[in-house]
Amino acid sequence: QYVKNKDIKQIERYAKEQNIEEPKLLKAYESLTVFTSAQIKATCNVLQSTILNIWATDAIRRDDKDKFEKIREYILNHLHLPLTVEFLCKKFFIGKQQLYSLFRQNNNELTLKQYILEKKIEQAKKMLRTTDLHVTQIAEAVGFNDYNNFIQRFKRIVGISPLQYKIRERENIITDC
């Protein structure tokens, strides 16, 4: 509790109106901290600034989340393209550090390159299971211009070559029937 300025006459009036012992009310009143109008205004300004800061920070986070979702969606729909950091920065008018930061914050600490590679391999696995395309065609469809690079990366992530994966998955389908 606080008071702007101590007005003893107001306390006397209030004590009479409320039928309160004036010395007790006066003692309680005397214990209150006195703030000047300038102090009260300054406190209000600090609170207002704090609220605006919280609001702005929340708005920036929402904007970052929206931007991340747009970039993520673009990547998923354009896996066939060479998705470089530079390309994505230009496409979404964003700096490299902000792009890297967005992916670390919103994607379980995966880097952008790891995320893109993971999505390309997931798409390749799906195509190996569901199409009759040759492995070289699938490599091109998920944005690998170098067939050998595709095989190496696929093998490192999945544990077997794309052709072995395709054969294994086809056998699993036959044995499940």
From the structure above, extract its key features.
mainly alpha, 9 helices
Protein described:
- Helix 3 crosses helix 5 (96-106) and helix 6 (112-130) packs across helix 9.
- The protein is mostly helical.
- The protein has nine helices and two strands, in the order E-H-H-E-H-H-H-H-H-H-H.
- Strands 1-2 form a two-stranded parallel ribbon.
Count of DSSP H/I helices? 9
Characterize the overall form: rod-shaped
Spans where pLDDT lies below 50 across 5 or more residues: none
Largest sheet features: 2 strands, parallel
The strands making up the biggest β-sheet line up spatially as 1-2
- Calculate the terminal CA-CA distance, rounded to whole Å: 77 Å
Radius of gyration: 33 Å
Relative helix content: over 70%
| Strand count | 2
Helix/strand order, N-terminal first: EHHEHHHHHHH
Mean pLDDT: 86
What's the SSE blueprint?
Elements lengths: L1 E2 L4 H11 L3 H9 L2 E2 L2 H41 L7 H8 L3 H11 L5 H19 L4 H7 L5 H12 L3 H15 L1
Helix pairs in contact: 1-2, 3-5, 6-9
Outline:
With 177 residues, the protein is an all-alpha fold. It has helices at residues 8-18, 22-30, 37-77, 85-92, 96-106, 112-130, 135-141, 147-158, 162-176; strands spanning 2-3, 33-34.
